[in-house]
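This follows on from our talk about sequence and fold. Go ahead and set the record down below:
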Amino acid sequence: MRDLYRGKSDIKKCYQPRTNIVKDEKCSLVTDSHNILPMWRNNCSQLWNVHVVSEVRQTEIYTVEPLLPKLGAFEVEMATDKLKSHKSPGAD
């Protein structure tokens, strides 16, 4: 049934072709997949590889007891069995 409704909604939305177009640093359009992949790789490496580290003070937190009890495999399995299929876990 789920595939039937998914197919119905695809037909209802009409066909929308996928486009592989990206703008580079000079705001010109790049359509070749061989040029797009290195551009994404470069962009992601610049975002994720931060070499400048500012001075950050680290404070130690002392607690008397653990904040959350450790869960065993049985508790995790029981919680996942109670989840509904094909549903979002929350507002995220």
Summary: The chain has a mean pLDDT of 76. The first strand starts at residue 22 and ends at 23. The longest helix spans residues 33-48. The two ends are 26 Å apart (CA to CA).
